[in-house]
Amino acid sequence: MFRGFYTAGSGMIAQQRKTEMLANNLANAKTPGFKAENSTIRSFPEMYMSSIETARIPTKNGFQMKGLSPAGSLSTGVYMQETIPSFVQGQLQETGLTTDVALIDGYLPTNETGTKGAVFFRLKNEDGREIYTKNGNFTIDPSGYLTNPTGHYVLNNKGSRIALQNDDIHITEEGVIMSDDKAVATLGIAFAQRPDALMKQGTGMFVTEDGENLPGAAGTQGVTYSMQQRYLESSNVDAASTMTDMLTAYRAFEANQKILQAYDRSMEKAVTEVGRVN
Known about the structure:
Elements: H1 2-27, E1 37-43, E2 47-56, E3 64-74, E4 78-85, E5 92-94, E6 101-105, E7 118-124, E8 130-133, E9 139-140, E10 146-147, E11 153-154, E12 170-171, E13 176-179, E14 182-186, E15 189-192, E16 199-200, E17 205-207, E18 225-229, E19 231-233, H2 239-274
Antiparallel strand pairs: 1-4, 2-3, 5-19, 6-18, 7-8, 7-11, 7-15, 8-17, 9-10, 12-13, 13-14, 16-17
Helix pairs in contact: 1-2
C-alpha cells in the first residue's frame, strides 16, 4: 500500500517539473534566440516480487523447507531525468536596427552520437568567462562597447571586447563590422560539437560544463554559417504544441493525484473500520 503512495507521488513530481519547463518555454516564445527545452522522463528500476511458501518434505519427521514463488515485478515510479534544449534554427524576424544580428546556421557537422553541432555568439560574463548565445539583440553601452541586453560584452574573433563610435555600422555576412568603410572588428562565433552538453545560464545563454572556452567556428574545418544584419533569430518554441503538451502533463498529474487520493481513502478505511474492535 505504501509503495503505491510513493509511485503516484513520484509521477506527480515528474509531471509538475515538466509543466514548469513547458511554462518557461511558453514564457520565452517571443525571446530572440531562445531554445525550447525538451524533457526526458524515465522510470525507476522495477522491483522483483516473490512470495515465501513453505513446502513439507515427505519424511518421517515431516521436515519443512521454505521456498520462493515468483509474484511478478513492481514499478517504483518515474522521474524527470534531464532537460535538453532543441537547437533547431528559429525563424528570422526583421527589426531594422543596425546592431541586431541574426546568426544563420550553415553546414554544421554531427558528432559520433549523431547530434548536430551549433554555432553561437561569444560573450563575456561578470567573472571573465565566456558564455554563448543565439540572441543577437545587441546595443552599444555608455562606454562605447557592444553588449547584449543583460550587459554582457560581445567578443570579437580574438576574444576581446568590441568598441564602436556609434551605431552607424554595416555588418557583412561573415560578421565583419564596417564603420566609415573600414573594418573595425569581426564578431566572434564559437562552435559546439556537442551542444547538448552545454549548461544553461540565464535566459538563452549557455556555458561549458568544464569551464573551457569553445573553439572558434571560423577555424573549425567543415563549419559554415552566415549573419544577417537588422534581423534577429526568433525563439524556436512552438506555442500551440507547447500548450498541448502542458494540458497532457496536467492530465497526467491529475490522474496520479486521483490515485493518491484513492490510496488515502483506503488507508483511512483500514484505520477507522477494519481495525475497529467490536
